[in-house]
Amino acid sequence: MRIEVHGHGLEVTAALHDYVETRFKRVQRYLEQSDDIRVQLKLDKPRHCAEATVTRHGRSLHVDAVGDDMYAAIDLLTDKLERALVRAKEKQHDQARRNEGLARSGGFG
Q1: DSSP string of 27-82?
Q2: 3-class DSSP state for residue 26?
Q3: Residues 21, 72: contact at Cβ < 8 Å?
Q4: What residues contact residue 87 under an 8 Å CB cut-off, 6+ apart?
Q5: How much is the CA Rg of the chain, to the nearest whole Å?
Q6: Distance linking the first and last C-alpha atoms of the chain
Q7: Structure confidence at residue 78 (pLDDT)
């Protein structure tokens, strides 16, 4: 898992970068080593925005969050991303089970 942190209209300090990496360790269990995460932090006064785009298997998953401060936005972002990854994993699992059932029954006929 590779994390890129970028700032839009603000400087990404070492403290912010470390905080992002620490918070994203929580979602690491849903990701593979080859997955890339791009985190964009921006300040739209008075709102603090955090966005993440996860690229896995040629597909992108985008999540964004807004908070009163940047740390709150990052916390909310990781919560939303974790839920989205769980949903994506469940959807993939359900689809695989459905395909397995179709293969056993001999198709649609």
Answers
A1: GGGGS-TT-EEEEEEEEETTEEEEEEEEEETTEEEEEEEEESSHHHHHHHHHHHHH
A2: helix
A3: no
A4: none
A5: 17
A6: 42
A7: 96
The tokens describing 24, both together, are 């994203």
Query: Rounded to the nearest 10 degrees, what angle do helices 70-105 and 14-24 cross at?
Result: 30
Q: Which residue stretches of the chain have pLDDT < 70?
A: 95-96, 101-109
> If residue 7 lies in a helix (H) or strand (E), which one and from where to where?
strand 2-8
pTM metric for this prediction: 0.81
Residue carrying the six token digits 């590779």: 2
User: Do 3 and 31 form a contact (C-beta atoms < 8 A)?
Assistant: no
Q: Provide the residue count of the chain.
A: 109
User: In terms of DSSP bridges, do strands 2-8 and 36-44 run parallel, antiparallel, or are they unpaired?
Assistant: parallel
* Rounded-to-integer distance, Cα 102 and Cα 105, Å: 5
What type of residue sits at position 85? L
